[in-house]
Amino acid sequence: AALQKDQVARHAVKLHRPKAATHSRSWAANNCKLLVGLLHRKSVVAKKLGAAVTAVEQDVNLSEAEKQFQVHTLEVFQKELNESEHLVLQAVQSLQRALQGDYRDVVNIKESSRQRLEALREAAIKEEQEYVELVAAEKHQQEALKIALAQNKSLSILDEILEDVRKAADRLEEEIEEHAFDNNKQMKGVNVEAVLRVEDEEKGGKMKNKSRKVEVEDDLGLSMLIDSQNNQYVLTKPRDSTMPRADHHFIKDLVSVVMLSLPCGWICTLVGLPPMFGYIICGVLLGPSGLNSIKSIVQVETLGELGVFFTLFVVGLEFSPERLRKVWKISVQGSCYLSLLMVGAGLLWGQFLHIRHTQTVFISTCLSLSSTPLVSRFLAGGSRLDREGDLDYSSVLLGMLVMQDVQLGLFIAVMPTLIQAQSGDLDSFLFGSLRVLKLLAQVLVSLAVVLLLCLVLRSFLIGPFYKKLHTESKGNKEILVLGMAAFVFFMLTITELLDVSMELGCFVAGALLSSQGHMVTTEVMGVIEPIRDFLAIIFFASIGLHVFPTFVLYELTILVVLTLTLVIMKFLMAVLVLSTILPPSSRQIRWVVSAGLAQVSEFSFVLSSRARRAGIISREVYLLVLSVTTLSLLLAPLLWRVTTHRCVPRTERKTVT
Q1: What is the phi/psi pair of residue 504, to 5°?
Q2: What is the pLDDT of residues 249-282, one digit of tens each?
Q3: Which residues, by range, are in coiled-coil regions (predicted)?
């Protein structure tokens, strides 16, 4: 055997010997001898493991379960040896590919690196599984030792009770544990990636003097994970569901937002600005461009979305079905015409600036949307202009905004077609065009289903449902608040399942309740408005998280020009459309409605981020859309105040809250 190892070593040295010193030859020979020796020892140990398995299977003193466990433990060790040998051979093959490749060919080097990365990911999954099995084997051995010691001594009544509790706890853990890692690691689209686990500084300081084992046992899984793309993750569902946990990052973020929103909103009120400016400034100060103290940005934005839902619900409460019947045709026509005009203007600018059609269509559609929560805050308070035969500007404005929310849901569904068009595949694009027509038909059917459901609910369910809530909530408003929130979420879920828009469901829920009369609307408003106001603060603060003052200052001139051009263009387009579709007796409201539509919706943040990930727009265009949207939202209150001051009589004027 020694002679054979020497021959293998000399052969390896002869194949790969460089024209260098004797030291490198001796190093290669020694390492080749070591590798051959390790492989030989592995073969010997594998035979011993096979013999041990045979001996365990023939041992009559062991139970069947104990035999299976010991055989499984030996197989885990055998698997560990085989995987180690496989990794060595894989490393040799990787070195061979690297030597055969062209060092000037970056693509070849990248492919080699990708193959090594995939091999390491597979090895990590296998090693993780083997580690878990070894931990289970260790636990089994400890349990066997405890049982052996317990048989040699008499147990007290307390020890017997604790032993029964221990067995029940083991069964409970087995029942509630989902094995999510094992169940998902082989699924299609699942990738294994390297992540960094960052402990809290306070926890890290306290745990310095403890052993690693104690640190793992005491950890509640609330540390942060960071992947190679700098995305940060927090715990969503723990392995052990019996222990209560709280996301302290999220709690601290909410405390920071609420505490800073008060002085910011107060200062804006003192200087005559809407308090929502203060909330946005609060988000800027706490966000990535400021103190960067918000850790759970996604969670804060998600909570802010609830503010949008309840804002639209309150808008629906003020929007009776009678008002809806007056303006539905104008709302549908106006929103569609305005979107088509924006897309047409975008294509003209794109042709002039040599921009791809997919980019111009996306950007134009994105910028054609207006902010419903912002305008609803403008319309809060004040009296309504609702003379007989006339249309009040709030009804027309809110109707068009709701239809734009419907268009938003449709546009999100059409985005895959834009991605296919971006790739330039003609067949895919034609197929995508047919898919768009199919989606339009689905939206019309879904809207018809929503309308039919509203008629059924209004005729048979809303009245008895509210009377029951009103009866049960006397002296206790919790039932009424819970019932209203449940109804909002029910309609939200229905419209989401129909692929229309969650925002439309919230608006429809409010409109259905408003059909029950003024007393019902007043009572529901009294319990829902405080919730709406608090969540709206979180929503406007989350907008500030996406404002980057440094980028705005760097490109201030071009951003101001783009924003003013966009606002003026949207204002004039809206005036043109409303002059065409409004009846002659109500055309005086077109200026106010156009002022409310002249900004860009905050949902452009979501759409542009998706488009950037899909490759429809570049990073530079994404930042421009983000900044223009923010500046238009900041400019909107000024335009609204000037327009309402000049075009609406003082007795009929809305106030900007």
Answers
A1: -65, -40
A2: 889 999 999 999 999 999 988 887 778 888 989 9
A3: 110-182
Question: Residues near 250 by Cβ (< 8 Å), separated by ≥ 6?
Answer: 234, 295, 296, 299, 300
Domain that holds residue 373: 256-383+392-652
Contact 481, 532 (CB under 8 A): no
Report how far Cα 159 is from the mean position of its chain's Cα atoms.
49
Q: What DSSP character marks residue 211?
A: -
Whose tokens are 């062209």? That residue is 102
Write out the DSSP string of 55-68: HHHH-TTS-HHHHH
d(CA 454, CA 487): 12
> What is the DSSP-derived secondary structure letter of residue 483?
H
pLDDT band at 53 (very low <50, low <70, confident <90, very high): confident
482 and 624 part of one domain? yes
Angstrom distance (rounded) from CA 419 to CA 614? 7
| 3 sits in which H/E element | helix 2-16
How does residue 625 score in pLDDT terms, banded at 50, 70 and 90?
confident
Cα(191)–Cα(227) distance, rounded to whole angstroms? 12
Amino acid at 126: K
Residue 549 lies in a domain: yes
Structural domain count, the chain = 2
* DSSP label at residue 200: -
Q: Note whether residue 166 is domain-resident.
A: no
Residue 640 within a domain = yes
Q: Are 382 and 654 in contact (CB under 8 A)?
A: yes
pLDDT of residue 213: 39
In a domain, 153, yes or no: no
CA Rg, the chain, in Å?
A: 34
For 4, residues 6+ apart whose C-beta sits below 8 A from its C-beta are none
| 405 to 138, 306, 315, 366, 503: CA distances (angstroms) | 58, 15, 14, 12, 7
Highest averaged pLDDT of the listed ranges 97-106, 351-360, 365-374: 365-374
> Kind and range of the H or E element at 45?
helix 22-58
Shared-domain flag, residues 261 and 128: no
For residue 399, the domain's CATH number is 1.20.1530.20
Beta carbons of 321 and 307 less than 8 angstroms apart: no
pLDDT at 12: 58
Same domain, 541 and 410: yes
Where a domain ends, among 109, 142, 175? 142
Q: Compute how many other C-beta atoms are within 10 angstroms of the C-beta atom of residue 99.
A: 9
Residue ending a domain, among 119, 142, 165, is 142
Count of CB atoms within 10 A of residue 175's CB? 7
First to last CA, the chain: 91
What pLDDT does residue 448 have?
85
Q: How far apart are CA 458 and CA 516, in angstroms?
A: 9
State the Cα angle at 330 between 329 and 331, rounded to 5°.
90
Four-point Cα dihedral 164, 167, 173, 175, nearest 10: -100
Q: Report d(CA 355, CA 346) in Å as an integer.
A: 10
pTM given for the model: 0.69
Q: How far apart are CA 622 and CA 607, in angstroms?
A: 10
- Report the candidate in 228, 221, 261, 199 with the shortest Cα–Cα distance to residue 121: 228
